[in-house]
Design goal:
Distance between the termini: 102 Å
Largest sheet: 12 strands, antiparallel
Shape: globular
Number of helices: 1
Structural class: mainly beta
Strand content: over 45%
Helix content: under 10%
Length: 173
């Protein structure tokens, strides 16, 4: 009688399973991020965004990104679709992907740098871009195409692999 009527041990609560469905949507939106001094660091615009809590990713349709570094360097990116991790430190651009790094107004002749392809993988904080698919790179009047690419702006290293073709134009005086 004692065993039958004794309270049973409570069963541990099942951990909440993160859904693979989006937990929120945004339509025709713009999200801005400012630094501690109030200076605009970045702006992300899109037609539609979906947040997936299972892996804390944000999927954005018709994305437009504008970012400014602490030194004032401006970078713009666009694509048919983007996939970003939760803190936006890693962004994948799909379909008509385009990244433009504007010239800093320092007096030095630094041409605008432009990347185009069907896929570009961007790390904004570490200033890197990578693609495992064919890309086109334009730097001023110079143009390059390659099957794959890795670019590290901080190290000033560009690696083009596969069928690489380039056109270097003489400087204008």
């Amino acid at each position: 009688w004692l065993v039958r009527n004794a309270p049973q041990a409570t069963k541990p609560a099942l951990a909440a399973v993160a859904s693979s469905s989006p937990d929120y949507f945004m339509r025709q939106f713009a999200v801005q991020r400012f630094d501690a001094s109030g200076r605009l660091e970045s702006e992300v615009r899109g037609e539609m965004a979906r947040h997936y809590p299972a892996n804390d990713t944000l999927e954005i349709d018709q994305v437009r990104i504008h970012a400014r570094s602490a030194q004032g360097q401006q970078t713009q990116a666009s694509a048919n679709r983007a996939l970003s991790n939760g803190d936006a430190s890693e962004i994948q651009l799909f379909g008509n992907a385009h990244i433009t790094r504007q010239v800093l107004d320092t007096g030095a002749a630094q041409p605008t740098l432009e990347f185009r392809g069907e896929f570009l993988h961007l790390w904004p904080q570490t200033e890197r871009v990578r693609s495992h698919l064919p890309v086109r790179l334009v730097r001023g009047q110079d143009q390059f195409t390659a099957d794959t690419m890795e670019y590290d702006h901080l190290q000033q290293v560009l690696q083009l692999q596969g069928r690489v073709r380039g056109t270097l134009m003489p400087p204008r005086h």
